Amino acid sequence: MNFPKKIIYLDNAATTFPKPREVLAEMIETYSSLGVSPGRGSYDLGLEAEAFVEGVRARLCEFFGGDDPRRVIFGYNATDALNTLILGLVKPGCHVVSSRLEHNSVLRPLHHLLERGVIRLDLVAGDEKGFIDPADVDRAIRHETCLVVLTHASNVLGTVQPAAEIGAVCRKKGVPLALDVTQSAGLVPIDMAGWHVSALAFTGHKSLLGPTGIGGLVLAGERLDISTTRFGGTGVESRNLLHTQTYPHRLEAGTINLLGVAGLSASLRYIGREGMKNIYSREMDLFRRLYDGLKSNPRIRLYGTESMDNRLPLLSCNIEGTNPQDVSDILDGDFGIATRAGLHCAPLVHEFMGSAAKGAVRFSIGPFNTLEEIDSACQAMNDIAEFRRSA
Amino acid sequence: MEEGLATGQDQVYASGHRERSIAGRKILFDASGFLLNADDWSEELAEILARENGMGPLDDSRWKVVHFLRDYYRRCGRPPSNHELKEGTGFSLMILESLFPGGVRGTARLLAGLPNPRTCL
Hints:
The complex is a heterodimer. Chain A has 2 domains: 128 residues, Aspartate Aminotransferase, domain 1; 253 residues, Type I PLP-dependent aspartate aminotransferase-like (Major domain) (Aspartate Aminotransferase, domain 2), CATH 3.40.640. Helix content of chain A is 40%, strand content 15%. Chain A has a 7-stranded mixed β-sheet with strand order 2-8-7-6-5-3-4, with helices on both faces. A 4-stranded antiparallel β-sheet of chain A has the order 9-10-13-12, with helices on one face. In chain A, helix 4 links the parallel strand 3 and strand 4. In chain B, strand 1 and strand 2 form a beta hairpin. The relative contact order of chain B is 0.14. Chain B has 5 helices and 4 strands, in the order E-E-E-E-H-H-H-H-H. Chain B is α+β, with helices and mostly antiparallel strands. The two termini of chain B are 28 Å apart.
């Protein structure tokens, strides 16, 4: 396939691209020297690989404000982590509270359980701007509620939810709060302990700037125990034909993705060096330019909040009377701009936005976008809108 | 073959697939109207599908797109990328999308007998 030499990549909410060169270089270097099975053999290199993995668990624990590195569990991505969490925590008869802002990584495991009659489910509606009111979560919690699971930031609207306030509600009611930080991790500070978050699911390949195929679950101290739903080799307690109940291996079956862990290690270092606040601030500067550029065209409809506070640098929009998939294809084919069209795996958000039939075009900014690229994107959208108006 | 329910001359299956009798032939479509077997395609069928999709007779520009899609798919085993489509037809994506009421994915590919494209809907 012949790709254009240079594209303007504005699909960073799906996967950040490109990755920092330092991250890729460090991944290869680490894997070249340590790429054996961690925690399996007793030879020095195996032990060293295990120590490396434990070190990354500790750094992730600190990064997210967790309190026990042994409860940092690696998986493929946030979807994998959320499945591990939901299927391992929810018992028959449980009532679960979630929201209409969720990605299918939360909605589908929950609806799978709902359809089988295992749980009862209430979905809190966000307001028209895309924010969840903690009071709504409070009202939705019942005596038999065993889990509140919410996105920290909408992947369609970019709105960052009041996690600390929701955490306070959950703490008051004695219900664990699980947070999906897929979009926010790496851009905004996350404080599990301070916010009373019992579990969070993260992925490495978005704003954490790591590779695909690595993510995980962070559990708070002793507050939450997750049943094992996948079983296999762990490198420990091999004589036992039942899976170990000791964290983190309790929830990790099979050899972990060491190359991915090496990527996370490098990307955490990169974010630490650059400063998360600086990365966010720079991306939001570009985002303001994008938002204002699109907003100035009356034929372009922007969804969700107009505020720049409590949001990530992504937006969804439509050109009046134009299929968003066509717009995205035109942006790609004629302007070399990569965006994401459709429902973004979050169908209920589009229902309350009124865009459920065709979805919307999503622009999401990453650390390597430039002002010129943003201006090109605005111009391209104006050109498409004008062409469609005159067609 | 799944057991079908008769609706007029069409057979509709539990999968949503539909077997239709068109110009004396039985042809299988998916739930969105895309051909399941690219070999069932003919120019006559493309014209019928175009009418069903609210288009008049296909003109030279539209035939150019349909034939390019088919030729590319036959040679490469996949639909062309946006850039290959642009290069191969000589039309911008803006023009291409305006030639077909449901765009390239929704209508041009359907008329050309290509498989239903994956979209995030």
